[in-house]
């Protein structure tokens, strides 16, 4: 396969641009379609040797052309093949017309399709370029295939999914396998698309890697190859002050656990010093539970400012269990010149005046990391959250630009975005990561990486990835305490693999 970075993601427009560049470089576009169809047929034969019939559903565009080529190859290999077409085949043009004409079997209207026992459905209706709801006749076919529970192999992307957002456009196939070409699309990784793609194969159809890389934008899967060169690694000359001093703010006496989780995760992720800054009424609760993590009483904004003036403090985490209100806002604004992870209550404290937060961090290099889940995102960015025309990536990018912050838009498909237009989709978080306290641990891990000097976007991306790795190590049934304990092992494993 062409040497293409595995983390690259291409939108349908970027893939179309790559196709055009390939044609300009002298590669006939029909040759690409032939290779794509051969790849689809090879996947069908290898994955479904038990098939009694390969049913190929062909759309009116190039995705359908891939299907016609696949049908011809499958028939030549001895398979029983039936082809059903959406729309009037007399209106096919370009490469799709050539592929249709090369198919020497019959073609029936899509409306006549009925799944049979032993069928393998090859979905070549729309692919990644679909941006409108599927027609009613396609919706009926999708429902019939689901009811019959026959396997589906999707070409490029299960029909009915938006390739940029991963959203379902009225109805969509649930594929056992999806074969795409040269690079994955955002819709393969974003939910709900990820849950409908099955196993994803990326087939090399002969477009040079230099063209794919030139066509690609700033969106990628969150993988260590992107940021591992910036990951802080302890050397023989390391000492605690070089590894940074992380401060985590505690809430009141009844809500101290979240801050301690963040602090423990920060310590395990490599911060040289970690201090829990506690209000007076929570000092006793915190001192009873802290050992390697230090403790300091910080009750007022004045005390915080005095500490900032006198100590070497590297980065801060504010939000977990802190409480919502004026004190949170005052503390955040006092930290406006420092690297800060703002989570949970810290985010919600600015729901009535998000502009005050954004203005405080608007100048200079990015030093604010916001880690909202769906509800918190809507509190800071209500207009973006309500805009159904935007994908999760689009929302995160617009939020990052507005806030001049690295955004960690949490969920099973967490998106990390930067004000400069870079964005990554995270995929390594296991299902059991959705547990109470998990977000507190993530905030501490990102804070530790900030304290050790990583830039905000890379620290956020690395923290999210390591968070997923720590959860995998901890295994099903883990608690947030287990997750925090495994943060160090995840960091060590990644360091050894570099």
Automatic annotation (TrEMBL):
Q: What are the record keywords, sorted?
A: ATP-binding, Isomerase, Lyase, Metal-binding, Multifunctional enzyme, NAD, NADP, Nucleotide-binding, Potassium
| Record's catalysed reaction(s) | (6R)-NADPHX = (6S)-NADPHX; (6S)-NADPHX + ADP = AMP + phosphate + NADPH + H(+); (6R)-NADHX = (6S)-NADHX; (6S)-NADHX + ADP = AMP + phosphate + NADH + H(+)
Sequence ranges assigned to domain YjeF C-terminal in this UniProt record: 223-494
Location of the YjeF N-terminal domain: 15-213
Q: Does the keyword Ion transport apply?
A: no
Query: Which Pfam families does the protein's record reference?
Result: Carb_kinase, YjeF_N
Q: Which parts of the sequence bind AMP?
A: 410-414, 439
The answer to whether the entry has keyword Nucleotide-binding is yes
The record's EC number reads: 4.2.1.136, 5.1.99.6
Its GO biological process annotations read:
metabolite repair; nicotinamide nucleotide metabolic process
Amino acids binding K(+): 63, 123, 159
Q: Which domain of life is it from?
A: Bacteria
What does the record note about the cofactor? Binds 1 potassium ion per subunit.
Q: Which InterPro entries match?
A: Carbohydrate_kinase_pred_CS, CARKD, Nnr, Ribokinase-like, YjeF_N_dom, YjeF_N_dom_sf
GO MF, one example: ATP binding
Q: What task does this protein carry out?
A: Catalyzes the epimerization of the S- and R-forms of NAD(P)HX, a damaged form of NAD(P)H that is a result of enzymatic or heat-dependent hydration. This is a prerequisite for the S-specific NAD(P)H-hydrate dehydratase to allow the repair of both epimers of NAD(P)HX. Bifunctional enzyme that catalyzes the epimerization of the S- and R-forms of NAD(P)HX and the dehydration of the S-form of NAD(P)HX at the expense of ADP, which is converted to AMP. This allows the repair of both epimers of NAD(P)HX, a damaged form of NAD(P)H that is a result of enzymatic or heat-dependent hydration.
What the record says about family reads: In the C-terminal section; belongs to the NnrD/CARKD family.
Assembly and interaction partners: Homotetramer.
Name this protein carries in UniProt: Bifunctional NAD(P)H-hydrate repair enzyme
Q: Which species? A: Aliirhizobium smilacinae
Organism lineage reads as: Bacteria, Pseudomonadati, Pseudomonadota, Alphaproteobacteria, Hyphomicrobiales
């Amino acid at each position: 396969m062409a040497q293409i970075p595995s983390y690259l993601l291409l939108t349908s427009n970027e893939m179309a641009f790559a196709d055009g560049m390939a044609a300009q470089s002298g590669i006939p576009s029909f040759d690409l379609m032939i290779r794509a169809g051969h790849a689809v047929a090879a996947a069908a034969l290898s994955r479904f040797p038990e098939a009694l019939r390969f049913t190929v559903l062909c759309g009116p565009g190039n995705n359908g052309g891939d299907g016609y080529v696949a049908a011809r190859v499958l028939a030549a290999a001895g398979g029983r093949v039936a082809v059903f077409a959406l729309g009037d085949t007399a209106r096919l043009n370009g490469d799709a017309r050539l592929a249709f004409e090369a198919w020497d079997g019959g073609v029936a209207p899509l409306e006549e399709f009925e799944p049979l026992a032993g069928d393998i459905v090859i979905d070549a209706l729309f692919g990644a370029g679909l941006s409108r709801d599927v027609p009613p006749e396609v919706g009926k076919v999708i429902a019939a295939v689901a009811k019959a529970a026959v396997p589906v192999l999707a070409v490029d992307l299960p029909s009915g999914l938006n390739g940029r957002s991963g959203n379902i456009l009225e109805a969509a196939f649930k594929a056992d396998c999806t074969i795409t070409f040269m690079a994955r699309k955002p819709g393969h990784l974003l939910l709900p698309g990820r849950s409908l793609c099955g196993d994803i194969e990326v087939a090399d159809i002969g477009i040079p890697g230099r063209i794919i890389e030139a066509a690609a934008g700033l969106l990628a899967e969150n993988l260590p190859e992107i940021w591992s060169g910036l990951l802080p690694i302890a050397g023989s000359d390391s000492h605690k002050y070089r590894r940074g001093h992380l401060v985590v703010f505690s809430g009141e006496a009844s809500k101290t656990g979240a801050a301690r989780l963040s602090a423990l995760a920060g310590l395990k992720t490599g911060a040289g010093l970690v201090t829990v800054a506690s209000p007076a009424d929570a000092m006793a609760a915190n001192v009873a539970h802290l050992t390697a993590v230090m403790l300091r009483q910080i009750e007022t904004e004045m005390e915080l400012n005095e500490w900032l003036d006198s100590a070497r403090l590297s980065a801060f985490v504010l939000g977990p269990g802190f409480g919502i209100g004026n004190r949170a806002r005052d503390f955040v604004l006092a930290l406006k010149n420092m690297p800060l992870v703002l989570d949970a209550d810290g985010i919600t404290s600015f729901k009535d005046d998000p502009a005050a937060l954004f203005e405080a961090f608007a100048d200079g290099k990015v030093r604010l990391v916001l880690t909202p889940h769906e509800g918190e995102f809507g509190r800071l960015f209500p207009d973006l959250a309500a805009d159904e025309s935007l994908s999760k990536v689009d929302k995160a990018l617009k939020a990052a630009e507005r806030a001049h912050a690295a955004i960690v838009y949490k969920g099973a498909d967490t998106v990390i975005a930067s004000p400069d237009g870079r964005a990554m989709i995270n995929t390594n978080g296991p299902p059991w990561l959705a547990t109470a306290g998990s977000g507190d641990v993530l905030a501490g891990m990102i804070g530790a990486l900030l304290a050790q000097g990583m830039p905000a976007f890379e620290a956020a991306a690395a923290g999210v990835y390591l968070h997923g790795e720590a959860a995998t190590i901890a295994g099903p049934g883990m608690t947030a305490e287990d997750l925090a304990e495994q943060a160090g092992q995840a960091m060590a494993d990644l360091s050894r693999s570099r």
